[in-house]
Amino acid sequence: MGAQSAGPLVVGVDSSTQSTKTLVVDAETGEVLARGQAPHTVGGGPGKESDPRQWWRALGEALAQCGPAARQASAISVAGQQHGLVTLDAAGEPVRPALLWNDVRPARESARLIAEGGGPEAWAERTGSVPGPAFTVAKWAWLCAHEPAAAAATAAVRLPHDYLVQRLTGQAVTDRGDASGTGWWAGSTEAYDPEVLDGVGLAPSMLPRVALPGEAAGTVRTDELPLPHGALVAAGTGDNMAAALGLGLRPGQPVLSLGTSGTVYAVTTRRPADPTGTVAGFADARGDWLPLACTLNCTLAVDRVAALLGRDREAVELGGDAVLLPFLDGERTPNLPRATGLLHGLRHDTTAGQLLQAAYDGAVFTLLRALDQVSGPETAPGTPLLLIGGGARGRAWRETVRRLSGRPVVVPEAGELAALGAAAQAAGLLLGEDPAAVARRWGTARGAEYPARERDGAAWERLTDTLTDGAALLGG
């Protein structure tokens, strides 16, 4: 298979909440030569937790599905779900299951940290973000408060992608993109913040080294996976940063991603700092910035509403005045960690299809509200939205975005963008190129184009009024 390729082979990995995906890609052309996927499990109960060792097993299974191509790879990069708290003992074994990004139990610790750190404005100016319950610093504070024995047994703290990189290379390495979602890496200094670390009882020695953009983490030093010993390992990054790489984003191009969570983001050259906490001022994987807003309730929440109504997810009907805010898991944007879903405006003539459409509207509305804050000064008003994620393939999702945004939409043909972005990072490391330029050469952002349609101002107004007037019922 390698002989048929135009250039060397690289592996891109996407270790997400639900599964690990692997792609073997021709570094010159971007052609995907092999792919694999293995599932993860997330524990039940009040929290969202996973054993990090299953990510490693899933990586091995997914690579094995790639066959001989994986063994011919010259470089590999790992993209991982952001924010997760991986605690390791002195032997490098997990102390307890990892707390995942969508675990909202640290809401109280988040509020305390914000107050003790001088308030939202001070946090935004220092770290670029206000540390909501998703942020790793809040999860560590929760662990210290609720499981002090586990915290005391912790010798090292890692993010999910860091854990996999360490097992690949034997090196404790992260990157600026994923580190920017911890709450203890400061965008203002591009380094770990000693005051934040002191405040939560973390020694800098417990954290991985932050690699520079384009720097290798090391080489493959394990014999447990079907990879060549000595292959280059990139620093990796967070899944959103990897998707931005996978699209070859330039400043000014907004992205709306429809998955288990919903996200809007754009690359900008200016360091963001939003004191409202709506926008996380992340760094990207290259040296620029990736302001991002994330909702907890997106495709799964709307699918749940469809199931309750006994309807196919595409069986929507326009019309009616019903408003549905599908905050079934609590919500992050707006910051309502204890929220439940809210239905308002039912009439005798409201149909099940209209209720399902209202669920789509509610999910898309919260993302589009954050879009203006995410878009940097480089973004022109009529710039098309790049629509990605599993939901982008659905007509109901696409048409809801068009109707509520009033903007043109492009749906890239390429899927698995986080894994593709990781592959582009590996190719950039191997070839000495800008990984975003590599992805642009691969043509990953090409896809179907849909023109702008008239914005539904009436629906937008109903949603705005319901979110404002229903604040007490939403339990924020």
From TrEMBL:
Alphabetized UniProt keyword annotations: ATP-binding, Carbohydrate metabolism, Kinase, Nucleotide-binding, Transferase, Xylose metabolism
Location of the Carbohydrate kinase FGGY C-terminal domain: 257-427
Highest taxon of the lineage: Bacteria
Record bears the keyword Kinase: yes
Domain Carbohydrate kinase FGGY N-terminal: 10-246
Annotated InterPro entries: ATPase_NBD, Carb_kinase_FGGY, Carb_kinase_FGGY_CS, FGGY_C, FGGY_Carb_Kinase, FGGY_N, Xylulokinase
Sample GO molecular function, one term: ATP binding
Record field: catalytic activity: D-xylulose + ATP = D-xylulose 5-phosphate + ADP + H(+)
A GO BP annotation: xylulose metabolic process
Protein family (similarity comment): Belongs to the FGGY kinase family.
Cross-referenced NCBIfam families: XylB
Name of the protein: Xylulose kinase
